[in-house]
Amino acid sequence: MTNRTGRRTAIIGGVRTPFVKAGTSFRNLTALDLGKLVVSELVQRCELKPREIDQIVFGTVIPSVQMPNIAREVGLATGLPKEIEAYTVVRACATSLQALTTAADAISAGEIDCAIVGGSEAMSDVPITYSRPVAQAIVTASRGKTVVDKIRAFSDVSPRDLLPVPPAIAEYSTGLSMGESAEKMAKENGISREAQDAFAHRSHTKAAKAWDEGTFSKEVMRVLLPPGFEEAVVEDNVVRKDSTLEGYAKLKPVFDRKYGSITAGNSSPLTDGAAALLVMSEDKARALGMRPLGYLREYAYAAVDPNWQLLQAPAFSVPKVLRRAGMKLADLDLVEIHEAFAAQVLSNLQAFASKQFADEHLGGAEPIGEVPDGKLNPNGGSISLGHPFAATGARLVHQALRELAARNGNSALISICAAGGLGGACILTRE
Amino acid sequence: MDRLEELSRKKPVVAAIHGPALGGGLELALACASRIASDDRRTQLGQPEVQLGVIPGAGGTQRLPRLIGIAQALDLILTGKSVRAGKARKLGLVDEVVPKAILLDVARKRAAALAGGRPAPKRSPLVPEKLQEVALEDNPIGRRFLFHEARKSIRKKTRGHYPAPEKALEAVRIGIEEGPEAGYRAEAERFGELVVGDVARHLVEIFFATQELKKDTGVDDPSVKPARVEKIGMLGAGLMGAGIAYVSVEAGIPVRLKDRDDASLGRGLRQIAGILDERVKRKRLTFRDGEEKLALVSGTTDYSGFKSCDVVIEAVFEDLGVKQTTLKEVEREAPAVIFASNTSSIPIGRIAEAAQRPEKVVGMHFFSPVDKMPLLEVIRAKSTDAQTVATVVAIGKRIGKTVIVVNDGPGFYTSRILGPYLNEASYLILEGAAVDEIDSALVDFGFPVGPLQLLDEVGIDVGSKVAHIMQGAFGDRMRPPEGFERIAASGRLGRKAKKGFYKYEGVQKGEKTVDETVYELLPGGVRRGSIPREEIVERCVLQMVNEAAYSGAKFHDRSRSAR
Ligand SMILES: CC(C)(COP(=O)(O)OP(=O)(O)OC[C@H]1O[C@@H](n2cnc3c(N)ncnc32)[C@H](O)[C@@H]1OP(=O)(O)O)[C@@H](O)C(=O)NCCC(=O)NCCS
Questions:
Q1: Radius of gyration for the alpha carbons in chain B, expressed in angstroms and rounded
Q2: How much is the ipTM here?
Q3: Measured in Å, how far apart are chain B's first and last C-alpha atoms?
């Protein structure tokens, strides 16, 4: 990416924890614990002197009330120099992509030379809150002067209100859960249950093969679980090594039990994990003698009305990023699409190729075309590897750069759909 | 001091304390009408005199007990330990603890208030456990009991070698029982006696030597500066490796810890976390500090993170081949680092033979348990360059060790002088002396533990191995007794095998019972003869002294070692 100072952002290295189903291996860890592990390991693997770091941009989608600026806490808790400034970004499932592009802007503007970007998610440690009436009563009571005041504050609270409220992965604006929105897309875009199951099966099969072949050995760290350090978590535990198509067919739809097609098998699971990247200006990387994995060439974000098709914004952000980069789909050696649901990936792909979609939504531009199967998510995706919301962007970037090197290609496209009807995309190059 | 105290009654003098107020400094403050301390970490209060073989000589033994109570005062005076401001406030030693920025202001206001006739604020209210103490101190029988107990515990600790604590106790007792005048006189007399005595003279010498050592860079050329150390690579997460990693992160130096598998690595991390947890429990560290220090160590089973280390310390298996292979790996993975070996017996020069950059190879001999043992022996091989020595010496000081620099050679310095001493103890056993007889004779002489207990701790097999290496290097004067290998060969390796000269199973923690079955392996069997204690002591100690003299002849810097 070149503007202002014209400095490109080099991606020096990355690492992620294994991604595990919520409530399993990482159930006792917080987002801070996971972030700390991954950032510490990243600095080690990149053989970086911590004093070279200027900034940490980090995020978590389900935030903790105790640490609204998790990026700062991660820096401090990792024992990095306290002079490294830090702030937190959130863009739902595109959070760590946002962290990357924000840092890249700062590098391009000449504001910083080196940053750690990433995200972590501890779905096992979500904050449980009280209902509105209880919360209001507590606040009123805390202001009350006498005991009677304090008790009176609770007089409007009904027993029902006392039930704690877990955070919903539902849209605040539409009230629909992600799954329900994906269900709506499957129906409106005519994505069959069979196509979804086949895609999920493809995802698991490719991920299992990649794990078997050691593809992830440079990307995934081993975690010795504190406090005992006895158990080592070394692999993603979402991926099914024995995935069969028939297995998917048996599953019941979860979001629309009667007419639905979205099941636990063809959705991404609730996942714990963290991922981070080290980025630098190209000249800084050269000065330190670092060999970058690749560069951020361009990025773009877009949004759609959440009431329309919540996870269809990639159909806008992807053409936008290609246009900005002056590239065509055919110029790319690799396409990595975040898999929230098989129905969403298939909807996105359908829109990319559709003349009708381009006529209706893109002002009659040429559709960007079909993504060849051989270039798409060759090592699995969020359905099979898991999806810790804030970590997925950094995972995709790192995984894509490693895969580019493996297939000796030069450019990759990354696309992420996110809650709120948002979409983010970027183009990475090795040269 | 008396005049100050006198003056303070008419015109209040308030002590504002920031930084160390130890010894005379604290005594001066005690004579004031009130004491205010800063909350700075550097602020420390104590009466360390006994550590130099003397007792407080300016009224400390009199004013301190009257201010904070006999038991608490004895705890400070008899041990010489110092306390931080917060603790001093709890003890009633200071009246208030405030930030340094307003220290003088508060002290001035306090003086003005006292001059205006307002009394100093009441000290912290009596808590139940304190009540018991007060009850004890307020009646003569209770006091007698207290002094008796204190004397008993002193005797147990000093074994009659250090007169100062007992003299301090006497001065305190006389002051309490016979009044201040008698007390001050008793204090002055005893101080006078002690200060010209041998013990004090030697302790003061050691003190100055240690101070001198703290300034020593370890190299003779003053233009040589230690390299900046921002990360240490630690190879081996065993007892030693984890111990070294712990002292490093405790001092704020990040550590990359490597071992061959997750299980070994996990054990090492657990050991480090365990020591930190313990320190948090004992309130030496806050929970957050503990977490932050733990975050400074990260584990790995490959060499990632080593290239950016400044120094790599190895604590892998004690075998020349293994050490050399490790050295070659490190040179390949991390070309610029200093390689320090924590060997206890292999000459550094031999290890360095495998090196491409032997000038960066040095010895750092730590002692177990690393977090408790203060000594670090830095070994300079012929090929080691000065900056390498200066760098590891600087690390040693940062982690709070007493660092000595010695020339390379079998056993270096410590193991070399220990060798003949341990051998002699072994000869004594074969001649029929009992294990506990030997150990207690030498503990009475002044060693913290006896030679056979030491062998149990180090490992009897390790001891045998080192003994043979030393014999090979120095000839017959280092020859271990024949038949002694049988002990290790039978699987009796010391504490680590829970089987040694002493019992480790079926005994209470802290209790020492000789495992009589060890005698079955030795001539003479269970029936032990008796060798006079003086003979035991002289034979063992003189062996050590002799060897020190031998090694001194070739010591790299005689002026330094002689100091
Ligand atoms: C879909 C969802 C509700 C499923 O949750 P869940 O019921 O806890 O899912 P599970 O993993 O327990 O799977 C349910 C069952 O399906 C089975 N299953 C899942 N995938 C399967 C497969 N590929 N083949 C065979 N069986 C499968 C499981 O084994 C399990 O069987 P069991 O009940 O006999 O143990 C949850 O994963 C979800 O909410 N995902 C969406 C996350 C989201 O919205 N992300 C945001 C995207 S931007």
A1: 27
A2: 0.89
A3: 36
B232-409 belongs to which CATH class?
A: alpha beta
pLDDT at A124: 76
Establish how many alpha carbons lie within 13 A of residue A306's alpha carbon, considering only the half-sphere containing its beta carbon: 15
**Residue A86 pairs with which residues in a beta bridge?**
A56
In chain A, count H helices and then E strands. Answer: 14, 12
CATH topology classification for A9-125+269-429: Peroxisomal Thiolase; Chain A, domain 1 (3.40.47)
Q: Which amino acid makes up residue B520?
A: E
The alpha-carbon gap from B355 to the nearest alpha carbon of chain A, in Å, equals: 23
Question: Comparing C-alpha atoms, which of B444, B447, B442 is closest to residue B424?
Answer: B442
**Which pair of structure tokens corresponds to residue A330?**
């055919």
Provide the pLDDT confidence category of residue A228 given band limits of 50, 70 and 90.
Answer: very high
Cross-strand bridge partners of residue A429? A295, A411
List chain B residues with pLDDT less than 50. 124-129, 554-563
Tokens of A299: 């990025």
**Domains of chain A: which residue ranges?**
9-125+269-429
Please check whether residue B142 is in contact with residue B111, taking contact to mean a CB–CB distance below 8 angstroms: no
**Beta carbons of B512 and B523 less than 8 angstroms apart:** no
DSSP annotation of A110: T
In chain A, how long is the greatest CA-to-CA distance?
Answer: 73
Q: List chain A residues with CB under 8 Å of B265.
A: 224, 229
Class of domain B415-555: mainly alpha
pLDDT score recorded for residue B119: 64
Q: How many CB atoms lie within 10 A of CB A144?
A: 14
For residue B270, list chain A residues with Cβ-Cβ distance below 8 A.
228-230
Pocket test residue of A263, A266, A392 for ligand 1, highest count of atoms within 8 A of CB: A263
Q: How far apart are CA B8 and CA A13, in angstroms?
A: 68
- Give the strands of the sheet with B255-258, arranged side by side: B297-300, B255-258, B232-235, B311-314, B338-341, B361-366, B375-380, B402-407
d(CA A66, CA A72): 12
Q: What is the pLDDT of residues A154-204, one digit of tens each?
A: 777 777 777 666 666 678 888 888 999 999 999 999 999 999 999 999 999
Is A389:A338 a contact under the CB 8 Å cutoff?
Answer: no
Tell me if the bond preceding A227 is cis, omega within 30° of 0.
yes
In chain B, domain spans: 2-203, 232-409, 415-555
Q: What is the pLDDT of residues A297-321, one digit of tens each?
A: 999 999 999 999 999 999 999 999 9
Chain A residue with CA closest to B252: the answer is A79
Q: How far is A183 from chain B (nearest CA, A)?
A: 43
**According to DSSP H, which parts of A62-155 are helical?**
70-77, 95-108, 132-143, 147-152
